[in-house]
């Protein structure tokens, strides 16, 4: 699934990417800056140690003053303790605000994902989203905790250290500064290359997460078909790819580490030789050489760490880009007219559900492919229930998904009681229209909570019991904790038919004005289906309903039937009328009848002739 860019844009700037974190960092900036300041003080405290050493070597040690030596040792001890305490304090200061930053970024991501249109979720693999909410945010937190502070702290420490060294002896100082230009050039090359592999690695983690998630959710299919070997092969291919990328990262890190460590060490070695010669000549005091070399050695860690601090910063920049790729996606918006929607004069008059020349094409459909719906005209009168029948893949599910605006019509319009659904706030629309999908999705919550998701605030036990009765879901009362029993992940601890009945109960519990049911009884045995139908008939009596049906028994629930064929409504009438006048309908229903009798799944396959039957256009679908 094409979900992310494989490589960063050219001209990408890590700094620009990281600056986007500012709104989240702003609330904790005081603590973060204080912590950075404390770290600078702690680090510079360490640089005082060589000066004390110089004083000790040139003073008490040269003069054999044991009191002075003990005093110097005490100073060194106090400086060491101060440095350790300050670094500890810094860590304490940043721990809490940084978890706050990570938590609020994760909350924003989750909130945004809920508001993104279905078209987005169709496009993006869930593992890619999961890895952005977990691994990427962890990388961002680690960047704020270490590289952000220590690139600054180490920069200041190196600057102060270099000034101290130049003040001690500028010739030796220049020798130590020799490798600066090659090291900076290496860092620049490293950053560019590392950004590329860091992005690849993080995308590969996303793909791996998707595969693992699919394997866990689809474990029944994998086991049932004995596909664990092929699944394991796919897993190994992805892990081998990720391992290769991680090794490339390690090689790059090793290369920069080698340059950053070796060149300064060589320079320090050269300064040591030169300094020793000058001490022997008497042009440099031994104390100055000790102080100089101690300072140079104290700067080793700040210099050595630059490599991995840059690597962590690049990973955080990539993680930030990946995070904002999702956050920058446009959420579902209310149309401009929604707020002051010009409602027609008959807005309060119940006119039912009407499709007017509705056309639809999936945004991710192959280029050049024809639209799926090419002009659907259909009117379901108030209180009427209409069954939608059509060949597999004719677009029935798609048409039903347009009513609660899970997808937006490409052109044409849909009205509820005369009001264009795009001129209605989504919350209002979705409160008036209840849906039950063919694939019933349940959440890891109690049975009662799953059903009451479909009800407005304040729904009570009586509403729950009534909905369970309509859906013939009395089995819920017999579960170990009744309707308080928690269903497992995705409700997989229940049978398909039980899940479907709970999904149906969820659709009817809120007594919606409009009900959209996508083949809601497909997993039920004939007796349960008959019982559900009898109860549904009562509900449907005062509800306007659109019911996708594959079987004659479901069709008979409805007052009228519409035949969807070739992207349009080819005919509307009663079951008997369509059976008599429309061979395609008769074929679909007889196929369904036969498969129902033989226990095979219903529906015809795509490719079956599905053009409008003769005379279809004479039916007025409205
Ligand atoms: N997100 C999507 N992107 C692109 N094409 C899609 C998408 N979802 C469905 N389709 C395509 O749209 C067509 C109609 O699908 P739809 O699920 O609406 O058919 P249906 O009539 O409900 O089929 P069935 O009776 O098998 O449930 C199919 O060819 C399907 O491949």
Automatic annotation (TrEMBL):
Cite the Pfam families for this sequence: ABC_membrane, ABC_tran
**Which residue intervals are annotated with compositional bias (Low complexity) in the record?**
598-608
- Cell compartment(s), UniProt: Cell membrane
ABC transmembrane type-1 domain segment(s): 35-315
- The residue ranges crossing the membrane are 32-57, 69-89, 142-164, 170-190, 252-277
Protein's membrane topology: Multi-pass membrane protein
* Source species: Streptomyces pyxinicus
Q: Which SUPFAM superfamilies match?
A: ABC transporter transmembrane region (SSF90123), P-loop containing nucleoside triphosphate hydrolases (SSF52540)
Tell me the PANTHER family matching this sequence.
Answer: ATP-BINDING CASSETTE SUB-FAMILY B MEMBER 10, MITOCHONDRIAL, ATP-DEPENDENT PERMEASE MDL1, MITOCHONDRIAL
Keywords from the named record: ATP-binding, Membrane, Nucleotide-binding, Transmembrane, Transmembrane helix
Spell out the molecular function terms from Gene Ontology: ATP binding
Q: Boundaries of each ABC transporter domain copy?
A: 353-591
Name listed for the protein in its UniProt record: ABC transporter ATP-binding protein/permease
């Amino acid at each position: 699934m094409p979900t992310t860019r494989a490589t960063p844009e050219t001209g990408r700037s890590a700094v620009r990417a990281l600056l986007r974190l500012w709104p989240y960092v702003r609330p904790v900036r005081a603590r973060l800056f204080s912590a950075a300041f404390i770290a600078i003080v702690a680090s510079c405290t360490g640089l005082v140690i060589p000066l004390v050493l110089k004083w000790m070597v040139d003073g008490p040690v040269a003069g054999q003053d044991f009191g002075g030596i003990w005093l110097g040792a005490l100073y060194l001890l106090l400086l060491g303790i101060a440095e350790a305490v300050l670094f500890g304090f810094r860590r304490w200061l940043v721990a809490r605000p940084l978890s706050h930053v990570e938590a609020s970024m994760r909350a924003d991501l989750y909130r945004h994902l809920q508001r993104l249109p279905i078209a987005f979720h169709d496009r993006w693999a869930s593992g890619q989203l999961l890895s952005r909410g977990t691994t990427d945010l962890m990388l961002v937190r680690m960047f704020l905790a270490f590289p952000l502070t220590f690139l600054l702290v180490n920069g200041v420490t190196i600057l102060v250290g270099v000034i101290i060294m130049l003040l001690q002896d500028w010739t030796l100082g220049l020798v130590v500064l020799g490798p600066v230009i090659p090291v900076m050039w290496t860092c620049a090359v490293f950053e560019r290359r590392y950004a590329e592999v860091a992005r690849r690695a993080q995308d590969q983690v996303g793909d791996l997460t998707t595969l693992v998630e699919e394997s866990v959710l689809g474990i029944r299919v994998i086991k049932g078909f004995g596909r664990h070997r092929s699944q394991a092969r796919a897993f190994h291919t992805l892990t081998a790819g990720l391992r290769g990328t991680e090794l490339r990262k390690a090689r790059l890190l090793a290369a920069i580490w080698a340059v950053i460590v070796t060149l300064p060490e060589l320079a320090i070695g050269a300064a040591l030789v030169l300094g020793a010669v000058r001490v022997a000549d008497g042009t440099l005091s031994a104390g100055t050489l000790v102080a100089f070399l101690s300072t140079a050695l104290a700067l080793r860690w700040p210099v050595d760490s630059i490599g991995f601090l840059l690597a962590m910063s690049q990973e955080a920049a990539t993680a930030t880009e990946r995070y904002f790729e999702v956050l920058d996606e446009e959420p579902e918006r209310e149309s401009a007219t929604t707020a002051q929607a010009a409602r027609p004069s008959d807005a309060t008059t119940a006119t039912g559900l009407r499709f007017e020349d509705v056309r639809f094409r999936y945004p991710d459909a192959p280029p050049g492919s024809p639209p799926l719906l090419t002009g659907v005209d259909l009117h379901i009168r108030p209180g009427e229930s209409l069954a939608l029948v059509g060949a597999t893949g004719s677009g029935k599910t798609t048409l039903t998904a347009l009513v609660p605006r899970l997808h937006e019509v490409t052109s044409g319009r849909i009205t509820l009681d005369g009001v264009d659904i795009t001129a209605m706030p989504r919350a209002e629309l979705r409160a008036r229209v209840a849906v039950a999908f063919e694939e019933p999705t349940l959440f890891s919550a109690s049975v009662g909570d799953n059903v009451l998701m479909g009800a407005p605030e304040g729904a009570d036990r009586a509403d729950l019991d009534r909905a369970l009765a309509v859906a013939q879901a009395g089995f819920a009362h017999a579960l170990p904790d009744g309707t308080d029993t928690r269903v497992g992940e995705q409700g997989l601890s229940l049978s398909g038919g039980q899940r479907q009945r709970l999904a149906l109960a969820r659709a009817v519990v809120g007594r919606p004005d409009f009900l959209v049911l996508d083949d809601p009884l497909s997993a039920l045995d004939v007796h349960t289906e008959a019982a559900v139908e009898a109860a549904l008939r009562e509900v449907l009596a005062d509800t306007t309903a659109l019911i996708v049906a594959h079987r004659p028994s479901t069709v008979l629930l409805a007052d009228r039937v519409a035949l969807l064929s070739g992207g349009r409504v080819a005919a509307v009438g009663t079951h008997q009328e369509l059976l008599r006048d429309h061979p395609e309908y008769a074929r679909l229903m007889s196929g369904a009848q036969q498969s129902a009798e033989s226990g095979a799944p219903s529906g015809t396959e795509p490719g079956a002739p599905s053009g409008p039957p003769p005379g279809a256009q004479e039916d007025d679908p409205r």
